[in-house]
Design a protein that fits this description.
alpha/beta, binds uridine-diphosphate-N-acetylglucosamine, globular, 10 strands, binds 5-amino-5-deoxy-1-O-phosphono-D-mannitol, 12 helices, five-stranded parallel beta sheet
Amino acid sequence: HKGKYEHYMQKEIHEQPESLTTTMRGRLIRGGSCKAKTVLLGGLKDHLKTIRRSRRIIFIGCGTSYNAALAARPILEELSGIPVTMEIASDLLDRQGPIYREDTAVFVSQSGETADTLNALEYALENGALCVGITNTVGSAIARKTHCGVHINAGAEIGVASTKAYTSQIVVMAMLALAIGGDAVSSQARREAIIESLFELPRALKVKEVALMHSEGILAGEMKHGPLALVDENLPIFVIATHDACFSKQQSVIQQLHARKGRLIVMCSKGDAASVTVGGSCRVIEVPQVEDCLQPVINIVPLQLLAYHLTVLRGFNVDQPRNLAKSVTTE
Ligand code: UD1
Ligand code: M6R
């Protein structure tokens, strides 16, 4: 039920502090002063040894679920030390890409019923890989056919555009990284900082209303390899420049965009507004800073609201975009 909201998408965006709390419930253990903070994923505990021994972890999914995996990839590589590759399910099948017994294949799907992802799962099972599911729907085909997995427990998502499932998927994959990383001493401080940041996340998510515009995602490093040619005083550009290892790179991109008179909206960490407005005027959205691997969970919220308001203003159906179905059960 939509309750006080006009649309499911709006409801689901605003629900994220609660859905993330449910995703993490019973799975994060803070411990006493001398007890280390840990993660417990019941569905994986008997399989962690096998996962740690695998030669490669392959994330497989479609659409938003694929993108959630893309956001989680760096932390999984960092904490597990295992190479992580990405596959769009249909592309893996079209190529008949190699999969081996020594691989762990992680299937990310909100519905658990997406045909392409399901077909890729059958393919990975035939090739002997350990198959892990990250699904929102208990009893779904992907949840049943994977060897093991984690339910994201975000609650039913009705809006076709994935919002709360996306953030819960990222959080589960961060917890997966922590679980695989185990108790290596070298990364203990990092793991504890992430767990602390996970506890804080629902509170940090109380970010609200923002602006309105359409965008195409481009990595900072790619700007000068083409997209810079499009920039003029008419092109609205949304720059994500929250504090992380790439911040100085983003600052120089902002300078270049200012120099070409781009119409910038810059998303930055609280307190960084002055440094991102050097060299030209722009709108700024400050967001709370969290542990870098969880920053995508925060940064997506203004973008979700942007998509929502833009769609509503243009008079389109936001819960059911034309030509799309919530769950794509045909190839
Ligand atoms: C489970 C219970 C939860 C209970 C908790 C108490 C279910 C669905 N979950 O949660 O109600 O509160 O124990 O300890 O009964 N799985 C897959 N593929 C997937 C997703 C999950 O194979 O894509 C498997 C898991 O390996 C596991 C089972 O399904 O065997 C349940 O997974 P999950 O709900 O994530 O486990 P818990 O969090 O332990
Ligand atoms: O149910 P799934 O996560 O497997 O669905 C995959 C995609 O169809 C889905 O993420 C789609 O991209 C979104 N609903 C669009 O926001």
